[in-house]
Amino acid sequence: MKISKGKIWTISFFRSFVWLALPICILGNIKSCSSYIEAGKYFTPYSVSVRGYYRRDGTYINPYNRRPPGGARHDVPYENTRTKMALLFFVCLIGDMISIAVFVNKSTSEIERLQKIEKDIEDKKRKEEKQLLTERILKKINFTFSAHLAIPQNLKKGILSKCKFCKKSISTDDFCISFFAVSNVHCVCMNCVLVQESLGRNQPRSKYIDEIKYFENYQKEFSEFKSKFHAESETDDFEFRDYEIKSIFDAILRSYEPPKIEEPQKSENTNFKSATTNETGRADIKRIRVKSSNVLAIGYDKNTKILQIEFKKGSVYEYYEVPENIYLAFMNADSKGRFMGNLYNYNYRQV
Ligand SMILES: [Zn+2]
After folding, report:
1. SS3 299
2. For residues 176 and 203, what is the distance between their CA atoms, to the nearest angstrom?
């Protein structure tokens, strides 16, 4: 799909109508020039010379040439023609410049467009090659995890927030601890959890011993994985960044995750459904209207820990195993939409 620049210039030449506008303008230039010169020929010559003299008030007038009497009147129509032709010349000159500018602009933007397409194709190809290489490397490494795969309950991922202590933003790829206290949801990054004795609001560090252990193991295994990955990929011309390796690692970890964690929750849901659901399979929960741009009403059932959200667009979502404090925080949250990020870790479905 290589198109030569010559071809692009030709195509742009016809598309920009420079072939139509430019000759007309150039013709206008030539015509106006020749008429201007022609009109100049008919001027009366400056044939009378006047010597310098002193005026009565004492100012000196330099010697000058003047036309013979009646000459100025004879010149008027030619002067008018000259003015008009000068005007025409400048109009045509502007026309020249505009048509050339349009032509150049069209050509360069076309070249840029094609270059972008070429680059996209190249990128896609590289991405695919990189994907293949990744698979090859993974096969070679044949990495296995030690048995600590079930993520502890309080270890959260996928919360886009700021750490309470270091104020660094916690990306959706980072682990953190999030807890609810005094109608606020607090997030603490794992690096801070490791060093803080107390996370504040009755959250001692010891409460998160499982989470810390999991995180430390995660880091250990990740660094091991990373060094192995780097060692394997060194010979290739692709460079893998740390964050890329991390996302590959996370992807494998996700696929390794035993399904055990989710199962009990699901069976509980089905048990629950048979007990108190209506025909649509939706739990019968009274929803309370809330003030929000997209959420219409929120309902919660203490016994089943089901949180229902009704959106203004009409859809209803159920979140399972949601602690009551999260529900209360949700109800108190200034922005319901933003708070939804905290529900990311719960199982949910549309009902
Ligand atoms: Zn922090």
Report:
1. strand
2. 14
Around Cβ 38, how many Cβ atoms within 10 Å? 13
The answer, as to whether pTM is greater than 0.85, is no
Domain boundaries, the chain: 5-121, 155-257, 262-350
Whole-number Å distance, alpha carbon 119 to ligand 1 midpoint, is 39
Q: How far is the CA of 52 from the centre of ligand 1 (A)?
A: 93
Cβ atoms < 10 Å from Cβ of 197: 7
Question: What residues does the ion ligand 1 have nearby, CB within 5 Å?
Answer: 163, 165-166, 189, 192
> What is the predicted pLDDT for the residue at 33?
96
Number of Cβ within a 10 Å radius of residue 221: 17
Structure tokens at 293: 């741009």
Q: What is the pLDDT of residue 276?
A: 55
Cα of 250 vs centre of ligand 1, distance in Å, is: 21
Write down the pLDDT at residue 266: 42
Q: What is the pLDDT of residue 267?
A: 43
Q: Name every residue whose Cβ is closer than 8 Å to that of residue 269 and which is 6 or more positions away in sequence.
A: 320, 347
CA of 107 to the centre of ligand 1 (A): 52
Tell me, in angstroms, the distance from the centre of ligand 1 to residue 46's CA.
Answer: 91
Q: So what's the pLDDT on residue 264?
A: 43
Ligand 1 centroid–CA 103 distance in Å is 56
Residues of the chain with pLDDT under 70: 1-2, 146-149, 235-237, 257-280
Length of the chain: 351
Beta strands in 173-315 (DSSP E): 176-181, 184-189, 287-289, 295-301, 306-311
Q: How far is the CA of 242 from the centre of ligand 1 (A)?
A: 20
- Cα 176 to ligand 1 centre (Å): 9
Write down the pLDDT at residue 60: 94
Say how many Å lie between the CA of residue 170 and the centre of ligand 1. Answer: 8
Residue 214 is given by DSSP the state: H
- As a whole number of angstroms, the distance between CA 351 and CA 345 comes to 18
CA pair distance 287, 309, nearest whole angstrom: 8
- Are 342 and 336 in contact by the 8 Å Cβ rule? The answer is no
Residues 6 or more apart whose CB falls under 8 angstroms from that of 201 comprise: 179, 181, 182, 186
